[in-house]
Amino acid sequence: MISFSSFYKQIADSNLQHWLETLPTILGRWQREHKHGNLPKWEKVLNKLHYPTPDFVDFSTSVTIGSGKQLTPGEQEKLKNLLGIFKPWRKGPYSVQGIDIDTEWRSDWKWERLQAHISPLKNRTVLDVGCGSGYHMWRMLGEGAKYVIGIDPSPLFLCQFEAIKSIAGQQHPIHLLPLGIEELPPLDAFDTVFSMGVLYHRRSPIDHLIQLRDQLRTGGELVLETLVIDGDENTVLVPDDRYGKMNNVWFLPSVAALMLWLRKSDFIDIKCVNIDVTSLAEQRSTEWMPNESLVDYLDPNDINLTVEGYPAPKRATIVATKNQPNKDLVE
């Protein structure tokens, strides 16, 4: 069974120690009650991932763990087969002991677009909301973060993260918790909070922004990346049914509308640092994610539109600072 005891020990002497009043109960309930049918199988695979401490790691320019020289070809093939049980791999890429996990998303491209625009992460405490398998968390660690915590309710993403962490060896200050942000109390503790690819999945986007704000210390930085459309402060797309075949897309604001939402949520120094149309090279099917991908979500006759006729995915990255909370804000 996946254990969170090392995380509890890590935060016991930190500014997150008050989280221990509720967190063990929440995660204990998850361990007892989670019913995902594949979880026992995935946990058995995790128990087989016993490898030497890697001879090389790089989290600053990639997520590379081991040169591959420590394993025989047969051992590499066995490791590849074990990691393959965790398909589909969506966020990456990873290089693990000479095995290239070519994920659906080139998440490294997203990181390169935002890296120069955020506050340096050295010695900062970081929360990554909706972190997936944790690719960006490793890159945050590579930037010198004091510790990195990711939350994502998917048990598959948790097992993918635990697989990478196990092979990485040592006690890296990085943890993924199978939680949604609605399960977090207002911690008011993180120096930087990331929310990338989450906002458009929330039925109440301003509530999500307030939840993100409440995890930051005053003066802390929010890094927000989400789908947007063209338009002014009053332009918001609400898909009638699906967007890009996704049935859980609720609100796609313009950048101007998004910045207004952030101002109403008590953020200041709000800057849009990047706008990028997702390319077919950045999101695609691979050996490690053989399901449908972006090309299948777009109009085959016009890649500027989704199959439903909406504008094709365009993503904006916003950086903002938490202001003193406005006690008059209705939450």
Largest sheet: 7 strands, mixed
- Overall mean pLDDT: 95
Describe the global form.
globular
Helix content: 25-40%
Total helical segments: 10
**Strand residues, percent:** 15-25%
Strand order of the largest sheet: 9-8-7-10-11-17-14
What's the gyration radius in Å?
20 Å
Give the N-to-C terminal Cα separation. 38 Å
Give the tally of β-strands. 17
- The oligomeric state is single chain
Low-confidence stretches: none
The H/E string reads HHHEEHEEEEHEHEHEEHEEEHEHEEE
> Given the helix and strand composition, which structural class is it?
alpha/beta
Keywords: Transferase, tRNA processing
Protein name: tRNA U34 carboxymethyltransferase
Catalytic activity: carboxy-S-adenosyl-L-methionine + 5-hydroxyuridine(34) in tRNA = 5-carboxymethoxyuridine(34) in tRNA + S-adenosyl-L-homocysteine + H(+)
Binding site for carboxy-S-adenosyl-L-methionine: 91, 105, 110, 130, 152-154, 181-182, 196, 200, 315
Task: Characterize the structure shown.
By secondary structure, the protein is α/β, with parallel strands linked by helices. Helices cover 28% and strands 24% of the residues. It contains ten helices and 17 strands. It has helices spanning 5-11, 23-33, 39-46, 73-84, 107-115, 135-142, 155-168, 205-213, 255-264, 294-297, and strands spanning 57-58, 64-65, 91-92, 94-96, 99-101, 105-106, 125-129, 147-151, 174-177, 190-196, 216-227, 236-237, 252-253, 267-277, 298-299, 302-306, 314-322. The protein has a seven-stranded mixed beta sheet, with helices on both faces. The chain has a four-stranded mixed beta sheet with strand order 1-2-4-5. It has a two-stranded parallel ribbon with strand order 3-6. Helix 3 runs parallel beside helix 7. The protein is globular and about 60 Å long. It comes from Shewanella surugensis.
